[in-house]
Structure formats: C-alpha cells, structure tokens
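Example record used in the benchmark description.
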Amino acid sequence: MSGGGRRSKLREVVFFGGRYRIAWALTGLALGLVGFLVVRPTLGGTPAPPHTWGLYLTTDSLDRHWRTDPADWLLTLKLSAPADCGGPAMVYGELHPDALAKLSHPPHFFTFGVAGAKVERAELGKLMNPANPSKSFRRWKPMRLTSFRHGYIAEGPIPHAFSVQDEYVVYFRFLADVSQGAGYESCYLTSPGLFEFAGADQRWQNASSLTNIYLERSRPYLGTEYAPVTDAVVYMSAVGKIPDRASIDVGAEVRADSLLLTCTGELPHQPKGGDAFFYERTLLTESSCASAQTFRASDANTSSNLRLFFAGILLSAAIGMLLEALITGRSAGTPNA
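Model output (structure tokens):
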C-alpha cells in the first residue's frame, strides 16, 4: 500500500489488493472504537437526584416518670462517600448531651432506625484514653442490625468511657447506601432528615415509626420512647471530590472540600399579631438536614475537554481511513514479490 500522485485536495491512497483495503478499513474501525471509548464517560447525562432518608436516634436516659425535663442532645454527623461513589458511604456520629443538663441516669442502651436507605454495618465506639479525648482512638463494637418494615434497626449497649467530661457521649458509625453517581466524575451524597416538624419530613417520620414499633415489641422496659436530639451539625464530603457550588442544596455552606449543614428541632417563636398559620408556613421552610448534595472532581472540566479533544482526533482519523478504504482509495495490481 502506498500513496499515489497528488491530483486533488484529497489524499490518494492506492491499495495493492483487497486484503490491504480491508486491513485499512479495520484499522479505521479500531481507531473509531478507541475514540468512542475515550469520550464515552462524558456522554452520560446527569441522573435525577436521589431521595433523602430518615434517621431516628434514641437512648434510655429519659426519666420514665418525668420527674426531670428531658435533656437536650446535640448530634454531630460526618458523611463520607467513597471515591467512585458506587459503594456505601461511611456515616460517623457523636451524640452529646447538654453540658448543663441533669440526666436522671446516664444512657446505657442506644438505638437508631433508618428509613429510605440500606444499612450494611453498625458499630458503637469507646474512647480508649478518655482523659484526653482529642488524642484518643476508639475501639468499635458491632451493634445488632435488623431489617424491619422496609427499614433498618441498629441497637446495642453503650461502652462508656470513665471520665466526667465524656461518659455520656455516644459514638457510633455505620455504612449506608446513600451515595450514587451523578454524571462524569460526579456523585450525589444524601444526608438524613433528623426532625419531625422541620420540612414536614416524611422519611424521618417513617424512621421514627418503625423504630418505636420495634422497641415496643422487643424492649418495652428500656424507656426509649423519645427522640433526644434537639440540634444537629452535619458534615458531608466525598473522597477526591469537592462540593459543586452551583447545586448546593438546603443552604449548606462550603468548608474547603466538604459541606456543612445545621438544623434544629426546636419550634420557632411565633411573633405577635395572631398569624393563625405561622407554624404551617414556617416549618415547611425549615431544614431537617435532609439534602442531596453534588460533589465533583476538581479537574472534571479539564479532563472532559481533554477526552473530547483526543476523541475528536481519533474519530477524524477513523472517518478518513474508512472513506479511503470504501470510496476514495484506488486499487492497483498486486506487486511483484
């Protein structure tokens, strides 16, 4: 196979036999396939955001005779999606009582229920150096995990740390299917609804319902019939990705490569003036921390442009070779050996 004399603007290719023409066409097809494979990851559309999920937590620290007011508890959650966003996300939590609260007794048993997401493993943690919590590591103990009424229940005794400042803190973590792909080099990560009234969150109500039904049947003597969480702070991140500022949900704030959400279960104070529908309007706009956030690779745009550039070169070469093999190429006699 060799090039002929230049008679027009198009290059003239001479094929010495049909097998050379076929080989040229196959080479063009191969280049086209490689070009398609290079650009294919960027061709998928952006799927719809996933549904959020509900998380209900409770302990046995309530005075069952209501001789003392329930303590306020602060929940801190940290959600981290894996690098490919295809596996379960890690959910790490700390449940802190109000430092000034007078608990009738410390919590000994911890339960949480999840609705709208699959839970694969749950554990409770204990500080091994409670005298210095900031430098201590945690020893994790599996919780009992049960699939119940289209949701999941995790329960277990709390391994307390023996220190005044830390003995009431509950450390827990679990794996949950709350992340999924969101297009090229992107993923969705969802956070749970944590309160009943804020946003009229149905997922939280489902989690609350299934947890309380389960406890009424299995552990009616524990006194876990209330949700202690009054305020929550949620951090969200994805390995190797940064928040997509153009699609931040429910007023989350960017913190470097993560997002921060805060929410409360406290009812707002009704202003004077007799607005009969104040709570109906206000609570619908409040956040329960349920959200679907988008994270993207920091070089996603550059990577996409490079793929399009190289794919364009390969596809152009493939089209040219196919045209030469099928249309413009000229046949010649077989050369002498």
